[in-house]
Design goal:
This protein is about 55% helix and about 10% strand. It is built from 21 helices and 11 strands. The strands form 3 sheets. Strands 5-4-3-6-9-7-10 form a 7-stranded mixed β-sheet, with helices on both faces. A two-stranded antiparallel sheet has the order 1-2. Helix 2 packs across helix 21.
Length: about 600
């Protein structure tokens, strides 16, 4: 009980931030005008700094994504244009012949009219040992093709169209190593009507496509669990991993990838995960996080929905370029079975509704700061929320936003694990560090990393709930209160007006107004970079003929609507609900599926 009471204040941070932001708008200028001016100056300055920082990080991420995609295409082009043959002889010699497959008719014609001679595409060299031959084969076929890892894809779903699930899994089945290295764990919900029929239909369809196809059914109304993706993934991971181990698969080889039902995962992502895993000093402390991308049906939804998901994906992308590896996966991500086992798999209580961020936080705290997020610069293509009708589509996106912002529970979880008291009464966080009771295996600078984590989680959850109110309304409302259009509606006596009675505060107020003019600039810079990146990803990775064009700048008109409807309002509702922790009915966002969507 004492532990619970000590930790309870952390639950009040989010509600107080939401309520305080709204109340400050009228009460700040009336009751504490000078303090309010200083507060706005600090808030807007810090906000501008963070946005400029995110702009540079987003540029780094976009550059790395473009580089990875083009290197992959270059490799594929080289493979398609040349066939390498290595012939070994009993005397230890070998012949390596590389023949261009493009312009083959021209090459054949040339061979008929001219004597053969050494060229750039035909070479012969001596190999004196089997080791050199193996090394040459490895170089010829690239390290990408050398895979000893088993990839288990957890696909949680509830009431999703079977065609959408089939399309998502089919994209994985088309990968080169699917039959030998891929396991599908189809995570069904037992509460879904006729889920068995859907699961068995998909299992039969893909029976020869993968190493294993496992179906799990998360029981309905399990005590102590909050219904949602987290509990579904936790059940599927435990039972799926048990079945793989029964087949004799080494747990050290298993990589778990959590996929949404609409995630289009390119083969390049898997190859980059394998490369990062093999290069890491200790890959069993890593979560592999890709950027998210919305391109499958983006032209079929309202502009406000489109812009919301664009800005959301841009924020995820910018966070991936954190030099300390303290960032968060979103939607789709991978980690080793060893790490999942070490931390006790996924949490299933009400504090874990934002399962992606929460799993990173859990791994971080459970490993005493050793766990890190490893960015994989390959975008995962997702589907925008889509229903029939403009207003219905807007409402569906609002419902999805409310569900997403329920992840505000991670704020209290982070603060509690950094500063609070554990269930057994042992001090944690900075208090434990001061008492030198932290684990001997804790990462160097663990206390600093905790502070960084707290800052990042607060930024992710408190900026949406505060910036919408303060950025849009603070300056104009204070201007209206302090300088009303008519003396009859004056709220503040001129003798108490800080701007009229103090040159210092008058200057500070002018600075606040100037800073507000610069606040949108980093966002516009981010969107400009995104416009170029979107076309690169569409055309060079997904091979789409249609992509965003500069006429789509008209979408930006909907940004204020998107910010209020899908950020400020749902985040405020989610924060205030933390006061009474209601158990909302889990509602899946409606999505149409068109098989032509990439």
């Amino acid at each position: 009980m004492k532990s619970s009471l000590f930790n309870y204040p952390f639950e009040l941070v989010a509600p107080m931030a939401a309520v305080g932001s709204v109340l400050l708008l009228p009460l700040g200028p009336l009751l504490i005008p000078r303090i309010y001016i200083i507060f706005l100056l600090i808030y807007f300055t810090v906000f501008l700094y963070t946005q400029v920082n995110h702009l540079f990080k987003f540029y780094l991420t976009a550059s790395k994504m473009t580089k990875v995609i083009r290197n992959w295409n270059k490799r594929n082009l080289t493979e398609s244009n040349s066939i390498t043959t290595i012939t070994a002889f009993s005397d230890g010699s070998a012949t390596t012949t590389t023949t261009s497959s493009s312009n083959s008719s021209t090459n054949n014609s040339a061979n008929n009219t001219a004597p053969s001679s050494p060229t750039a595409t035909t070479t012969r060299e001596r190999i004196t040992s089997v080791e050199e031959l193996e090394e040459m084969e490895k170089e010829a076929f690239n390290l990408y093709d050398d895979s000893h890892l088993i990839h288990a894809f957890i696909v949680p779903n509830y009431a999703e169209p079977e065609a959408l699930l089939r399309d998502t899994i089919k994209r994985l089945a088309n990968h080169k190593n699917a039959q030998t290295n891929y396991v599908i764990i189809l995570a069904m919900e037992a509460s879904e009507l006729n889920y068995e029929e859907k699961a068995y239909s998909l299992a039969d369809y893909f029976k020869d496509s993968f190493l294993q196809f496992i179906v799990t059914a998360h029981p309905a109304d399990t005590p102590g669990e909050s219904r949602g993706k987290g509990s579904n993934v936790a059940y599927a991971a435990k039972h799926g991993c048990a079945q793989m181990l029964q087949k004799g698969i080494d747990r050290r080889r298993i990589i778990l990838t959590v996929s949404d039902s609409d995630s289009s995962i390119p083969e390049l992502y898997i190859k980059e995960v394998e490369t990062a895993f093999n290069k890491a000093e200790d890959p069993y402390f890593l979560l592999f996080a890709p950027p998210i991308f919305f391109s499958r049906n983006c032209f079929d939804v309202p502009a406000a929905v489109r812009m919301t998901d664009i800005t959301w994906s841009a924020m995820v992308m910018s966070s991936l370029s954190n030099s300390r590896g303290l960032s968060f996966p979103c939607s789709t991500y991978s980690l080793s079975m060893m790490l999942a086992e070490r931390v006790g798999y996924w949490d299933t209580d009400a504090d874990a509704v934002g399962e992606d961020m929460h799993m990173m936080l859990k791994c971080f705290f459970k490993t005493d700061g050793l766990a890190r997020c490893c960015p994989i610069f390959v975008p995962i293509n997702l589907t925008n929320v889509q229903t029939s009708g403009y207003l219905a589509n807007m409402h569906a996106r609002f419902v999805q936003a409310k569900r997403h912002y329920n992840g505000i529970a991670d704020l209290a979880y982070t603060l509690r694990n950094s500063f609070g008291v554990k269930e057994d009464g042992v001090l944690s966080g900075f208090v434990a560090a001061a008492n030198k009771k932290t684990s001997m295996y804790a990462a160097p600078g663990y206390w600093l990393d905790k502070l960084v984590m707290c800052t990042k989680v607060m930024e992710a959850h408190l900026i949406p709930v505060t910036s919408g109110w303060l950025m849009f309304a603070a300056v104009p409302l204070m201007q209206f209160i302090l300088f009303p259009p008519h003396s009859m509606i004056a709220f503040v006596d001129p003798a108490d007006n800080p701007i009229l009675t103090s040159e210092l505060y008058s200057t500070l107020w002018n600075i606040v107004k100037i800073i507000t003019l610069f606040l949108p600039i980093p966002l516009f810079g981010t969107l400009a970079i995104y416009e170029h990146l979107h076309r690169v990803v569409d055309r060079e990775l997904y091979r789409k003929a249609e992509s965003r064009s500069w006429r789509n700048v008209l979408d930006y008109i909907s940004l204020p609507i998107a910010a209020w409807a899908f950020m400020t309002l749902p985040s405020t509702i989610a924060c205030i609900k933390r006061l009474y922790k209601t158990n909302d009915k889990y509602i899946v966002a409606e999505k149409f599926f068109n098989e032509n969507n990439v």
